[in-house]
Write the structure tokens for this entry.
Amino acid sequence: MPLLSLAEYEGLAERSHGHLCAGQILGLRMALYGLNLLGLADPFGKDRKRLVAFVEIDRCATDAIAVVTGCRLGKRALKFRDFGKVAATFCDLPDDRAVRVSARESSKQRAAEMFPGVHDRNLQQMCAYRQLRDEELFETQWVRVSIGPEDLPGYKAPRVVCDNCGEGVNFKREVVRDGRTLCRSCAGERYYESL
Ligand SMILES: [Zn+2]
Ligand SMILES: [Zn+2]
């Protein structure tokens, strides 16, 4: 499936995310721009296995990025870094190239200037984000991203069992401490408390 029009992506994003909003449109545009800069035009076909996307926020835009790129958490091709920023880095694995695309702070202001008569902010931004040029919406930088083999899609490694809780651990996420193999939870990174 080659790249679609923005309107077609809007339909797909609305279905997958549950609603259409300014954040979705910004995410669609961001992903399209990233793919464009990398020169990849068939993310669901021949370019399917060469893309990894790092997203820096867990909001609407992130779902839209998955719609365009096909990069999904469950495929290990979408990496979440919780920086709270509307930004993403698109990595082309075989050529070891990556471009980071971030939303300009000025885009909301630009939307207000372009559509002063539209009083609903979300609608105002939706209209503007469809029309503004890529350079007006986003800042870009070419970057290098080191992705270890254990973080790549398709990585195969033996699964180990935590010496403390007995649960299986994949992808080399275990921690070896004082000769014991522990899961990250038992090694002190637990995000929950047992009741
Ligand atoms: Zn939304
Ligand atoms: Zn454990």
